[in-house]
Amino acid sequence: MKSLKVLEELGLEKKEAKVYLTLLELGQTNVYRIAQKSKINRSTVYYLLDNLKKAGLVEKILSGGKTYYSAEDPRVLEDILERKKKILIDGLPELLSKAKAFDKAPKITFFEGIGGLRTAYLKTLELKNDELLFWFDKDYGFIMSEDFMKEYTEKRQKQNSIVKSITPKSEKMIEYVNREKAFGRIVRFIDEKHAHFFGNSTIILFAKRKVAIFSNKEEIATIIESEEIYKTLKGIFSFIWEILEEKN
């Protein structure tokens, strides 16, 4: 159910979302009918209703000595998100000041599985107007789903990032790159006979101090936060970039 997924994406637990949707369908009603319709036991429904009430999504009504519940208009979700956004904006400076103590220290994060790869790829888009430097192998973009690669490219465009890529030359990659040219990616090809230089990994330099390394076939990735490693790999990238012909 699409509505259920939307509510979960907005931060509701699955059962909370089911109860809220049940109330939208039934209108003002009692716990017995909510439990019956949602197929959640009554003791749990009371707990979920209390959570939803605290979140501002449910109203509790006393009438004739009985207790009823009613869902708030779904548009209230926009107000809740705006309040959370304001709280984040107000609190972000203090959070960032606390992070400075360890922000510059080297750090390594590991990711596993397709879900982990997705998370790692999206983390490379954390800064707007960033410079993204890619080494990608001949299978880049073909392991992940087309929907995800489209999502990644669209988000990259919104971030207004400069993208430079080095990749082995092959018919498949030329076709892929021709599609990507419309999205601002600049590519220089290395001869396919030197493809072993890349192995089966993709490397992305981003955020001025981070390096993401992906082994798509093994479904593992790591992100290294290190200014020194970043500078070293950027130097190697720039050297190779200058001796390759740009693909027009």
Give a structural overview:
With 248 residues, the protein is an alpha+beta fold. The chain is 49% helix and 21% strand. It has 2 domains: 2-73, Winged helix-like DNA-binding domain superfamily/Winged helix DNA-binding domain (Arc Repressor Mutant, subunit A, Orthogonal Bundle); 104-243, 2-Layer Sandwich (Endonuclease, Chain A), CATH 3.30.870.10. The strands form 2 sheets. The protein has a 7-stranded mixed sheet, sandwiched between helices. A two-stranded antiparallel sheet has the order 1-2. Helix 1 packs across helix 2. The protein is elongated and about 85 Å long.
Helical amount among residues, as a percent range?
40-55%
Q: Count up the helices.
A: 9
- Count every beta strand, where a strand is a DSSP E run of 2 or more residues: 9
CATH architecture call of the largest domain: 2-Layer Sandwich
- The portion of residues forming beta strands comes to 15-25%
The CATH class designation of the largest domain is Alpha Beta
**How is the CATH topology of the largest domain named?**
Endonuclease, Chain A
Overview features:
two-stranded antiparallel sheet, 248 residues, single chain, alpha+beta, 49% helix, 2 domains, seven-stranded mixed beta sheet, Arc Repressor Mutant, subunit A, Endonuclease, Chain A
How are the elements arranged and paired?
Elements: H1 2-9, H2 14-26, H3 31-38, H4 42-54, E1 58-63, E2 66-71, H5 76-103, E3 107-112, H6 113-123, E4 131-135, H7 146-158, E5 162-168, H8 171-180, E6 185-190, E7 202-206, E8 210-215, E9 220-225, H9 227-243
Parallel strand pairs: 4-5, 5-6
Antiparallel strand pairs: 1-2, 3-9, 4-7, 7-8, 8-9
Helix pairs in contact: 1-2, 2-3, 2-4
